[in-house]
Amino acid sequence: MNVSDNARHDLMMKHFAGLPAATLAAKACFRRPARSLPARVTLDSSAVDAMTDFKHVIAVTIEPRANIDEANRKMIENGIRMLLVVEDPDSVLGIVTAGDMLGERPMQIVQERGIRHSDIEVRDIVTLHAMLEVMQMRDVLNARVGHVVATLKRTQRQHALVVEPNDGDACQAVRGMFSASQIARQLGVPVHVGNVARTFAEIETLLNH
Predict the structure, then answer these.
(1) pLDDT surpassing 60 at residue 200
(2) Most exposed of 33, 123, 185, 192 (fewest Cβ within 10 Å)?
(3) CATH code: domain of residue 41
(4) Backbone phi and psi for residue 62, each to the nearest 5 degrees, phi listed first
């Protein structure tokens, strides 16, 4: 800032007084998100009990031009297996999962292009929005965990996004997501999303045995 800017800044600051301050207390705690997922659910539990809600948990995102190593590092640092692939300004292009990075596609790209594995970009392996089935939040609110598991089995994917209308405009907003591995931890049993039992009744029968 030049001299006149400094003088203007000092003049403005005369209207503000510093806030009271003190030292941090010993063994201070810290605030956590207002809502956390329950440790245990059943197939009859409300579906929202198994949904990662982006109103309470910040979505972890990555840009399409980021390399595959950066995507892997973000997943490890955040203890997750899926990232939203976002173009500026906050436009969801699709998703990338740990399965995408560990599958055959990266090796095919290495062989086809003659590049290093670390040179692969997220946009090379992203699952684009047109390939993703999503659930409506209004349906999730009235659904049970068993319905979500059945949906994951039908789509044969480890993750599913939940969307809702965005307040104030016509944008479709990603409200949250479901993860088969998260639901498995909460149910206490594996959740396989291959071409096996698909109906709520079939899944309930298998879990009861």
Answers:
(1) no
(2) 33
(3) 3.10.580.10
(4) -150, 150
- Assess if residue 69 is contained within a domain: yes
User: Is 170 a member of any domain?
Assistant: yes
CB 146 within 8 A of CB 152: no
The strand pair at 91-97 and 127-128 is best described as antiparallel
The CA distance from 7 to 1, in Å, is 10
198 CB-contact burial (10 Å; exposed 0-12 / middle 13-18 / buried 19+): middle
Please write the tens of the pLDDT for every residue from 62-88.
999 999 999 999 999 999 999 999 997
Give the total number of structural domains in the chain. Answer: 1
3: amino acid identity, one letter: V
Domain enclosing residue 163, as ranges:
37-208
Q: Is residue 15, in this structure, part of any structural domain at all?
A: no
Q: For the whole model, what pTM was predicted?
A: 0.78
Specify the pLDDT at position 184: 95
- The mean per-residue pLDDT over the stretch 44-54 comes to 96
Q: Which two tokens stand for residue 12?
A: 């403005």
